[in-house]
Amino acid sequence: MPDLQPARSPTFYFIGVTTGQSSIMKVFPKWAKVLGIEAKIMGLDLPIHASPQEYRNVVEFLKTDPLSLGALVTTHKLDLFKACRDIFDYIDPFAEELEEVSCLSKRNGLFRAHAKDPVSSGMALECFVPQNFWADHGGEVLLLGAGGSSLAMSLYFSQEKFAGNMPSRITIANRSEPRLVSARAVLQRLSKDIEFRFFVLSIIPITRTTTALSPPCLPIPWWSTPQVLVRTPRVPPPPTGYPIRETAWFGK
Questions:
Q1: What DSSP string runs through 46-96?
Q2: Fewer CB within 10 Å: N-end or C-end of the chain?
Q3: Distance between CA 56 and CA 59 in Å, rounded?
Q4: Residue of 226, 246, 225, 223 lying closest to 234 (CA atoms)
Q5: How many CB atoms lie within 10 A of CB 101?
Q6: Average pLDDT score, the chain
Q7: Other C-beta atoms lying within 10 Å of the C-beta of residue 120
Q8: What is the pTM for the complete model shown?
Q9: Please, are residues 113 and 134 in contact by the beta-carbon 8 Å criterion?
Q10: Counting Cβ atoms within 10 Å, is residue 145 exposed (0-12), middle (13-18) or buried (19+)?
């Protein structure tokens, strides 16, 4: 449990697991200088899947300490939200939909919970996806992995302001079925204008003669080139040469 001492100067916290090793500890002071923010950053380390009481102790401290301005939350987004939902004075719509929190803030006397991934994911997409692309050209979206990033992007695409300019279908592929079941429970509440499909990824060897359309697979035309390697974030790099092992593949 982190040592929670009242801040002596305006402080922004990073709630993670090994925060001292994160580059944000070096980057944040530079951001603060550019943006004119007079605050320092401090890490609060908690074990993965900490107890609800540990999360509550941290969040209640942040809420009541005058000079603790807010926090960034990474690994603990889901667990912290579940344990502390009743502590927040305001929960933004994205946090409500995703049932997670990535940012804690204070404004006008309210202690606020936010989910910022749909915002940052959307800003990144808007940098290279042309405006009105889906309305003008149609098309679908494939998301590898069923974690927070995929849910955030799905939520971004499904916003009412994009009515008439949405992907026709979003396919989410993941290595474990439970995570897909959880994702489906969240996404079924979103826009009915988008069809969602969910696939379990299998792990098979691939050789020089294996093609991306060898069964069993999801027949996506632009993956018809031989020796295509499809990866999810936690799959380690393959060894050099063939056969390439631990390759993510569509289908059960």
A1: --TT--HHHHHHHHHHHHH-TTEEEEEE-TTHHHHHHHHGGG-SEE-HHHH
A2: C
A3: 5
A4: 246
A5: 29
A6: 81
A7: 13
A8: 0.71
A9: no
A10: buried
pLDDT digits (tens, 9 = 90+) for 100-150: 999 999 999 999 999 999 999 999 999 999 989 999 988 899 999 888 889
Q: Which pair of tokens denotes residue 80?
A: 């912290």
Domain ranges of the chain: 11-115, 119-250
What CATH number belongs to 11-115? 3.40.50.10860
How many other CB atoms are found less than 10 A from the CB of residue 136? 10
The first and second tokens of residue 24, run together, are 């944000």
3-state SS, 161-186, equals HHCCCCCCEEEEEECCHHHHHHHHHH
Written as one letter, the residue type at 187 is: L
Q: Which amino acid is at 65?
A: D
State the Cα–Cα distance between residues 41 and 22, nearest whole angstrom: 12
The answer, yes or no, to whether residue 8 has pLDDT greater than 90, is yes
Check residue 120 and give its pLDDT.
92
Question: Which residues, other chains included, contact 43 with Cβ-Cβ below 8 Å and sequence gap of 6+?
Answer: 13, 14, 16, 19, 20, 22, 25
- CATH class entry, domain 119-250: alpha beta
Q: Which amino acid is residue 9, in one-letter code?
A: S
pLDDT digits (tens, 9 = 90+) for 148-173: 889 999 999 999 899 999 999 999 99
Fold agreement (11-115, 119-250): yes
Q: DSSP labels for 197-249?
A: EEEEEEEEEE-TT--TTSSSS---GGG-STT-----TTSPPPPSSSSEEEEEE
